[in-house]
Amino acid sequence: MNALILANGELHTSTELMELAQSVDLLIAADGGAKHSPILQRTPETLIGDFDSVANDLLCEFQNIGVEILQYPTRKNATDLELAIDHAIQKGATTIYFAGMLGGRWDMSLANIFLLASEKYKHIRLTLLGDKCKMYILHPGNNSFTTKPGQSTSLLPLKGNGESISLTGFEYPLDKYTIAFGSSIGVSNIAVKKTVHIKHSAGVLLFIVSNDSD
């Protein structure tokens, strides 16, 4: 099952995002992320959070049309985004896309990215749609991505060292190379094939694919 979660950051619209919003099996708004649903022209199946940032008139509208409303206390041990992810997984999601997850508060943007590196999400395919880019969270294993020759990419260790990394389809390939946490060696690589492959044995990686044309 595919799910799209709307967070309360800046929404960067694209043709891909508009089409994705219509095609996913499940759309979840994390609190203030509800404001993005009219732009994407789809009502979420679920609104979840403590509702400290969702407009009251939108909340009432969702209640009136039967949207599932899951309200949590303001004082809680998880962000609204984490609650939304866990709910999507409980509903059966195995692939989750995120929009509106970046921008605004730096602490929230960084917390959101690091949250996705959690061990409990290692079996879920996570894709973050940002401003003219996509970000993927990579746990150890084999991953393949559709790219366009000439696209700029970066591969950054997000949790621990990225060990035994092998890259194919890139201008700068690697063969069982370890990228240390904090290293910049993986920044500004370039895809040279329509499909690129990333394999690694340990650590959590953040793979960023730029798209300046959208």
Overall tally of structural domains: 2
N-C termini distance: 26 Å
- Count all strands and give the number: 13
The name of the CATH superfamily of the largest domain reads Thiamin pyrophosphokinase, catalytic domain
Query: CATH topology of the largest domain, what is it called?
Result: Rossmann fold
**Could you tell me the strand content as a percent range?**
35-45%
What can you tell me about this protein's structure?
With 214 residues, the chain is an alpha/beta fold. The chain folds into 2 domains: 2-131, Rossmann fold (3-Layer(aba) Sandwich), CATH 3.40.50; 138-210, Jelly Rolls (Sandwich), CATH 2.60.120.320. The protein has helices at 15-23, 37-40, 56-64, 80-90, 106-116, and strands spanning 2-6, 26-30, 46-49, 68-71, 95-99, 125-130, 133-138, 141-146, 152-168, 174-179, 189-190, 195-200, 202-210. Strands 1, 2, 3, 4, 5, 6, 7, 8, 9, 10, 11, 12 and 13 form a 13-stranded mixed beta sheet that branches. The mean pLDDT is 94.
Topology of helices and strands:
Elements (H helix, E strand, L loop, with lengths): L1 E5 L8 H9 L2 E5 L6 H4 L5 E4 L6 H9 L3 E4 L8 H11 L4 E5 L6 H11 L8 E6 L2 E6 L2 E6 L5 E17 L5 E6 L9 E2 L4 E6 L1 E9 L4
Parallel strand pairs: 1-2, 1-5, 2-3, 3-4, 5-6
Antiparallel strand pairs: 6-7, 7-13, 8-12, 9-10, 9-11, 9-12, 9-13
List keywords for this structure.
alpha/beta, 13 strands, Jelly Rolls, 2 domains, 214 residues, Rossmann fold
